[in-house]
Amino acid sequence: MSEQQLTEPDAVDETFPSSTVIAEPVKGPDDAAESQATLSAEIKQIEAEHKAAVTAGTPAETQPRLNYPPYRSSLLRHPTKDPRHTDPETIELFSPAFGHRDIGTLESDLTIQAGGEPIGERIRVTGRVLDGNGRPVRNQLVEIWQANSAGRYIHKRDQHPAPIDPNFTGVGRTLTGDDGSYSFTTIKPGPYPWKNHHNAWRPAHIHFSLFGTEFTQRMITQMYFPSDPLFALDPIYQSITDQKARDRLVATYNHDITEHEFLMGYNWDIVLTGANRTWMEEDDDD
Amino acid sequence: MTEQTTTPDLTPTPGQTVGPFYGYALPYEHDSELVPPGSANAVRLHGVVYDGAGAVVPDAILEIWQPDETGEVPRATGSLRRNGFTFTGFGRAAVDPEGAFSFSTINPGPTEAGKAPFISVVIFARGLLNRLFTRIYLPEDTEALAADPLLSSLEPEERGRLIASREADGSLRFDIRLQGEQETPFLRFPGHED
Predict the structure, then answer these.
(1) Which backbone phi and psi does A138 adopt, to 5 degrees?
(2) ipTM for the whole complex
(3) Looking at the partner chain, which of B25, B81, B111 has a beta carbon nearest the beta carbon of A91?
(4) What pLDDT digit, counting tens, does each position of A201-249 carry?
(5) Which residues in chain A have Cβ-Cβ distances shorter than 8 Å to B12?
(6) Is the pTM of this model over 0.90?
(7) What is the DSSP code string of B87-106?
């Protein structure tokens, strides 16, 4: 690969530097000029190859590929060498501890953080955080962030022409309960455009940041909403090449969570990687 | 809560990229200051994150987790609202526009006698579809480093990439290269697919 080819993909930032950018025709090497059809063809081909491999006996993939060319920003940011198999040592077998000193009780309700009601569809997202052995992850930190109902983030790098909601920051934190449960009240985020390719739109999602009982379980992911028409078109969601694995990021609408004349309810359970530390009495006492 | 009537699917939930917009959500006041800068025994841990073309990565966020100077694993809460006195062992640092990160911490001790002390690290970035784990070893205890199981399993030049360099002012310097000739060795723990 030439130097030019190596540096080019990264020059295509994913965000809109000014609100005038998408009002103008997209052209030139630094703009997102590739079509959705080009991207979709690449996505389909990778998925077909994965399906064929599974049919031939390879285990289905359960995590995103780090090297997923349709997500152009991954080209220069994925390691090319296999990760080293490592037995976790003492520090890695524990996790930082968070407590009620760390988090205000209102931080799990994103609809009451400002003076007024945010605009949009009020929702609750609730579920449980489990480790790979099915044990609840208790008293651990869950952080979320998301766009507002118009698809706009309160972030200086998001300048696409959709309104900011003065009553919505889109940031929430909570601690899991003794049964591993968490619950956030928020507004359903909108889809938003990005610059991976021409007319690229992210399906609506909420970013989730999770800690387990061991640092080796630390993860960040995105939760999606059922039946989003953008799923097939989105290289970030599709970087998980197996349909069953991708489905694990999609919340379930649950009418038992929905509240009369108040909000719509979604359930989403999260499973972290298996815990390596021997189950100790201390864990039950916390 | 709804009843759990079926056996839950215990396949780990897939990760996704942290994306470009974590900047107003994940950072918090004093996030990178495990100890107040300038306090007794405070050590600066710093470096730069690079991509496969050698360009700096301006939108990465790192977390560190470490024992205290005696090798004790911290169990205290309070990382998000630091009181300036409690060592919680956890810190978070978003890189600056030049890809540089900086923590104020202390030297970790060995968690067991004879073990090489290290700081555990997790890396997130736009363009990085799942988190990466690595370790930052202290350079001093050469005997313990030679006996370390992970370091011993690496090629000599890779080994050096997991050991921080000690600068004249006592700082630890550790650069992270996501890809390329000088790629940082990243770790896979049991139960991880990637």
Answers:
(1) -95, 150
(2) 0.95
(3) B111
(4) 999 999 999 999 999 999 999 999 999 999 999 999 999 999 999 999 9
(5) 62-63, 132, 271-274
(6) yes
(7) --SEEEEE--TTSEEEEEE-
